[in-house]
Amino acid sequence: MDIQTNFIKGRMNKSVDERILPMGEYRDALNIRLGSTEGTTIGAVENTKGNEQITTLEHNGTALSANTVCIGAYEDGTTETMYWFVHDPTRGVDMVVSYNTNIQALNYHLISTSVLNFDPKFLVTGVDLIDNFLFFTDDLNPPRVIDVNRQYANSFTEADISVLRPAPITSPTFTLKNVSGDDDFMETNFVSFAYRYKYENLQYSALSQFSEAAFCPGPYLVTLEMYSNTGMRNLFNAAAVSFDTGGASVIGIDLCFKVSNTNVVN
After folding, report:
1. Which of 8, 11, 38, 181 has a C-alpha 20 to 30 A away from that of 264?
2. What is the 3-state secondary structure (H, E, C) of the chain?
């Protein structure tokens, strides 16, 4: 006996016999997916496409070899885009690519013969897309992130894709000086300096180590009236600060300071 019904509810129900299946539900399905409409929470059932080749990956105008493997993938259902991580041992090339099914666009985000260092024994199982940043890790290389809207040159480095942005190694240096004006902030405050790097997309490194206090006292002098060392005043009211400007991926530097009686960094 043939039983015909509709699937308005778009819900699978394996708990009851198919002869008493409520209207709008279905017992089993093959090659379908369950979506949702904009105006209701009721699901909509639609056919899914089968497997067929829709593009060919190439390197320097030549298709990748038959030994090429995919070691990880991520589906962005919002934009109907698939990201995947490719390793071709024959040609010695690794790639991070994506395909947008809405506009049938293939995008090569990263192409590398050395930096990515993909290995089929270490699959990319940790992947997430936050805004336009694709984070991924393979438990072999450092955690990485790329801006999917950015075009990376083939000469990119590990620093360009590392989640951990390199911080300054050395603390800043300074030269004390006097400048004209009434500013006397440094007269009785012990001021120390540090700095951090600013990278693209408003990403920042950790702070460098702080410098020594920019303070040079005058001669020792104790007053009998106050019993205090009045010589403990800075002879200088300004400092010229020098620091390492970092690599080519650094687009800005934040110079920071703090005083000795607080941990607040300015």
Report:
1. 181
2. CCCCCCCCCCEECCCCCHHHCCCCEECCCCCEEEEECCCCCCEEEEECCCCCCCCCCEECCEECCCCCEEEEEEEECCCCEEEEEEEECCCCEEEEEEEECCCCEEEEEEEECCCCCCECCECCCEEEEECCEEEEECCCCCCEEEECCCCCCCCCCHHHHECCCCCCCCCCEEEEECCCCCCCCCCCCCEEEEEEEEEHHHEECCCCCCCCCCCCECCCCECCCCCCECCCCECCCEEEEECCCCCCCCCEEEEEEEECCCCCCC
